[in-house]
Amino acid sequence: MTVLWTEEELEIGGAALTARVYRPGAPLRPAALVLHLHGGSFTDGDLDCSACVCRLMAEAGAVVISIDYPLAPEHPFPAALNLAFAALGRLYADRSKWAGRGARMFVAGEEAGANLATALTLMARDQQAPPVAGQILLSPMVDASLCTQSIHAAAAGAAHCKWVDGWHLYLGGAEHAAHPYAAPLGSRRLGGLAPALIVTSEDCPMRDESVAYARRLRDCGVAVESHMLTETETPSLGMDAAIEADLHWETVLRDLFRKFLAENSAAPVRTVRA
User: Fold this and answer.
1) SS (H, E, C) the chain
2) What's the pLDDT tens digit per position in 218-235?
3) Residue 270's pLDDT band (boundaries 50, 70, 90)?
């Protein structure tokens, strides 16, 4: 399927936010509307680094809006999250313009972007708006302790690795490490969240926390689909690099996205308080 994209500016809180909008060449209306957040360990990344993931979601039938959120250390927690939540509310209010009347709202991201995406579902639950139909989390960074086996296998978890530095600069202080919106794996209230699609790979540094988060969500009654992809030659270079290195990943992810978006666009969105 042909995918078209444009760069646009969203007016959020009186400021212009750069966004890239991906649309299927022949979109159905209403289409699923996805707010996407790129990876980069909270301190790096841009709209280019997630182009493959966004393209695959658009090929799966969604209108995808990827935003260029503010990065740490200049903008520590919760700056990026608050801006993303404002963007979520604005996109939901204007969803008929982007994806058609009655479009369902989804959030998605990789790594640090997946952290922000799942934190958005927590905020939406707590504030009872806007309704989120689903969350697509690719190797989410949700555990600030950095003590899993997969992190250590990647020679991470030590001083001056990008994940340690990313968490340190994003949190800005030890007091935020236990905040459920900052490190969702440690949250004691994960019930009532939108259904989740969680995908990681066998050799991803975030493999163990991705699996643990899927398990925590299930234990709290959240509908979860979790998938483990095979190893790649680029485990620490990000999801887009892995997709480009393994064409099989393209097919698998596109099919997972299509199924998840279709199922949760048809199901009623429930607002549930944990």
Assistant:
1) CCEEEEEEEEEECCEEEEEEEEEECCCCCCCCEEEEECCCCCCCCCHHHHHHHHHHHHHCCCEEEEECCCCCCCCCCCHHHHHHHHHHHHHHHCHHHHHCCCCCEEEEEECHHHHHHHHHHHHHHHHCCCCCCEEEEECCCCCCCCCCHHHHHCCCCCCCCHHHHHHHHHHCCHHHCCCCCCCHHHCCCCCCCCCEEEEEECCCCCHHHHHHHHHHHHHCCCCEEEEEECCCCCCCCCHHHHHHHCHHHHHHHHHHHHHHHHHHHHCCCCCCCC
2) 999 999 999 999 866 555
3) low
